[in-house]
Design a protein that fits this description.
Length: about 290
Amino acid sequence: MTKTGPLTFAVIGCGTLGTAIARGILDPLDKDSFQIKRLIATVGTEHSKSRVETEFSEHSSRVQVLLATENVRAVQEADVVLLSAKPVKRQEIFDVPGFRDALRGKLLLSIMAGISTKELQRLASGGDGDLERQQPLQAVRTMPNIAAKIREAMSLSTANLDMLTTENKKIASWVYQQVGQQKFVPESTFDISAVLVGCAGSLLLLAVDGLLDAAVAEGVKRPEATEMVMNSALGMMKLVPAGNHPSVLREVIASPGGCSIRALLELERLGVRSAFTAAIMKAAERSKGMSNS
Ligand SMILES: NC(=O)c1ccc[n+]([C@@H]2O[C@H](COP(=O)([O-])OP(=O)(O)OC[C@H]3O[C@@H](n4cnc5c(N)ncnc54)[C@H](OP(=O)(O)O)[C@@H]3O)[C@@H](O)[C@H]2O)c1
């Protein structure tokens, strides 16, 4: 894709993440780099179609919502295509007659978990090795997270940077920067990095849930406990990017004979730190398995 004017953008699979990203680019934080002239979203059911139409009612002059039966039309009319359906749907989507042809020359952005750029290339070429050599796909694989809904995602992208044009790299970065922060990483470290942005947050939420249960057991109402825990945790977390190492912070907080050191020792006794490490390593193993399968 060499075009730099306002873009027509197709979202194939406008569910939770697709909707969050579409919302971000329709009302961008960075209004100078790129603009969305038109957005075409596709979904599986009439129910989802009504949901997305309602969601984007204030952008109705620029947004069109179609059923999955019109995926080919959506891609034909687009400059950039975001694939945000479930990974299990990928073969069905690419196998529709005309889909691969419609994709030719477009920038393909995929957030499908576990689907490598090599697999995207295979899907797009329909297993035709010659075509693959002649027309390397302009594809960027990204792992965002659900915080895209509030423009606070950390999105990791990877691509064959020898093939991807500078303009397409800029477009991909711009898209994800409208829903948070974005960076490119090599595909060799993508699986473990993707697990960190995709799963680590949910592990921390499990810890938050445990803290809330304790507060409720001790008589604090859950909404009040949630406010206290979340606000203190968010403030504490922000100290880390401000230059404080987590272990140093822990030592500073744990004063001699105090409450924090007792709580920390109890967590160590229960093996919580190594449990977090083991959980992420399990997830990374699974992520590598998905990419290689
Ligand atoms: N959720 C996360 O936190 C997260 C994080 C990182 C990456 N991802 C990846 O993001 C992708 C989307 O996840 P999600 O949670 O947003 O899923 P989702 O809410 O289930 O969205 C999927 C959407 O695809 C639509 N769809 C189904 N079949 C289709 C087809 N043949 N053509 C076009 N659209 C079709 C569905 O419509 P109907 O519902 O009407 O069938 C739905 O709107 C997945 O590949 C996932 O691996 C998700």
